[in-house]
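User: Here's a chain of 692 residues. Predict its fold as C-alpha cells.
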Amino acid sequence: MSARIGFGGAALAPEPNPARRVHATDRIGAAHSRTRLTARRRSTEAATTPAVTPRSLHARVSAHEVAAVGAICALALALRLYRIEFQSLWWDEGVSLYLATLPLSGLTTGKDWLVDLHPPLYHLLLGVWTRLAGSTPFAARYLSAWFGVAAVPLTYVLARAMGSRLGAIIGAALVAVSQFAVFYGQESRMYPLVAFLGLLSVWTCARVLRPGARLAGFATVAAVNLVGLYTYYYLGLLIVAEAGVALVMLRRDRRAVARWIGAHAVCALLYAPWLALFLTGANSTATSIPSERVTQWSLASFVFQSLLGFTVGFARPAPWSVLSGVAALAAAGYATVRLGGRSVVWWLVLATSAFSILAAYAIDVARPFLYPRFVIWVQPMLLAAIGVGVGLALSEAAEALRGRVRAPAFGVAAGLVALSAIVLVVHGNYRSLAEHYTVARTAYSSSDYRPVLAGIARAARPGDLVIGTYPWQLGYVVAYVHTPGIRLIYFAGESAEREATQSGSMTGRAWLLLYSADRAWIPDRVESALIRQLPTAYVDQYGDTRARLFGAPDPVVSPLARLGDSVLLTRTELAPSGPLHAGGTLDVTLTWQASAHPAADYTVFVHLLGPDGQLRAQSDGQPVFGAFPTSGWSVGTVYVDRHWLAVPPDAAPGEYTLEAGMYVPSTGQRLPVGRTAEEPDRVILGKVPVVR
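Assistant: Prediction complete.
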C-alpha cells in the first residue's frame, strides 16, 4: 500500500519494507538509512511549514473548514449590513448612482461620462442591480456588501495555498472583521468588487504557475484581468506585477510563456477601444485634484498609513494601533522566514502587493492624489499573509509544547507574539468599527443631503424636473426621492446657462440643487437664469446644500400659526422625536410662508425653557441662515428654516418647553401670534423631555 503525507502535493515516500533490508548489502542498507533520515526530517518540517507548490490550490477542504469559512462569511455579511444606512451617501456614491441610471452610450461619451472617467463595468452592474432591487441606499450598498463577503472565501483559498490551514482560517476571519473592508463594503462604489477581482486574479495566476498548466488556465487569468481593467484602472498595476512574476517563474517553459503573452495580448486588444476613449476624454477634460488632498505623500508616510488602515482601520492613530501594525507585520515576516522559497503562492502575493504599493506611489509623485483604497486588493492579501504567519507560529508553539522541536523556547515565544498580534489587530478593528457605526463622518457630515431631500420627497410631484449642477446631487435624488415620474438633468460646463434658460421656458416645475463649498451663496449662472424665468415656490438650505423649486407656489392650507399680519408657520419638525439627553442637540425645522409681503426683516427665535421657565438653549437668526430675509419673501413661497439647540450637559432632567416666533431686531418687539398685539407673542412647539 502506498501513502501520501503532507500538504498540497508535498508527498513523502513510505518507509522501505524491513524484510528487504535484511537481505540487502551494507552499501544498500546505508543508503536506505540516509533515505529514512531525510524522510523523517522532511516529515518534521512538514508538520509546521509544509512545502507548498501551486498544486496546493487543489488540496481537499475538510467539512470542518467549510463550516468555519461559512460561519466567517455569515459574520462578514452581518458586519457589512449592520447600520449600512447610518452614514449618508457621499459625493462619489452619488456619482455612482447617477451614472447607474445611464445607458452604455451615456457612460462612454458626453458630459455625463466626463464627470467620472472610470471604466463602465461597475456602473453597468450597479444599474442592473438597482433596476432589480431598487435604488435605496440599502439596496445600492448591498451589492458592495456582497462583493466584500465574497472576498472572504477567496482570502481563505489564497492563504491556504500559502501553507497553513489554520492561517487561512485566521486570514479569512481578519478580512471579515476588518473595519477597512467593512467601510468600503458599505459604500456604493467599485472598491469591494476591485478587491474581489484582485484576489481572483492572483488566485488564477497562481494556478498557471504549476508545471503543465493548460491554455484554458492562461485564458482565465487574462479574462479576469480584462474584467478588472474594465472596472478600475489601478488594477493594471497588479497585472503588470503578475506578468513579471509569471515570466520569471515560467522562463524555462517557452510554451507557458507564449500562452501567457498570447492570452494577455488578446486582453490588450479587447481593452484598446476603451483605452483610446479614455485618453481622448482625459485630454479634453481638466482633471482637478480635490481640495482635501493637495499635498503629496512621502513614501514612508503612504506605506505607514496604508498598512495601518489595512490592519486596524481608520480609528485615530494611537500607540496601541501602531503596535498592532508592527505585531501584524512581524507575523507576516515570520511566515516569510518559515516558508522561505518553498511557497510559490507566498512569493506571488508578496511581490504583487509590494509592486502595487510602490507603483501607486510613483503615480502619486506625478499626480498627487492617492488613497490606500486605490490599491485595495493589497489589503486582503496582507491579512492572508498575517494569518499564515500567525497560523505557522501557533503550530510551532503547539509542537514546542509537545517537545517535538529543538528550540521549544523560541516556538513558545513565537506563539505568544502571534497571539498578541491577533489580539491587538482585533481590538484595533473593534474600536474602528465602534466609531464607524456610531459617529457620522466629519468629512461628509456637512454634505449630508438627507434633511433637504426629505423635504423634496414630501413636496415633489410626478413630472417635476430635477436639475443638478453636480452629478452626485442627482444620485442622491435617485437614492432618497422616489416620487414616480420625476426627470433628472445634469447641467455642467459652459452650456449650463443656455440649458437652464431653455428649461425655464417650459411649463411645469423645476427643482434646482446647488452646492457652495464656502457657503457664500452668490447666485450662479444656472440659478440666475431660472430666477429670470420662473417664480420661486420652495427654498431649503442645509450646510453647503440648497434646494430651490421654481414654479407657481401652492396655496396655504391650514397654517399652524399666524405671526403678525403677513407671516404663516405651516409645519414644524423636531429631532430626536423622543427624550433628549443632556448635552445633546435638538434639531428644529420650521416651515414658513408669507400671506403678504412682510414690512421688515424679522429675526426668528427658537428657545428651550427649563421646568422653571428659565432659558436653557436658544437659536436666534435670520431665516434660512440669512440667505432669504423676510422683507424679500414672495407670497406663497415655502421657506424651510433650520435651527439647532445645544442643551447644556448639566441640564436638569424634566419637561422642557420649546417656543418659537419672530421679532424686530432693532427693538426686540415680538410679532403677535395673531392679528392683534394683545395676543401671545410666541408659538409653543411642544414639550421636550430631557434626561441624563
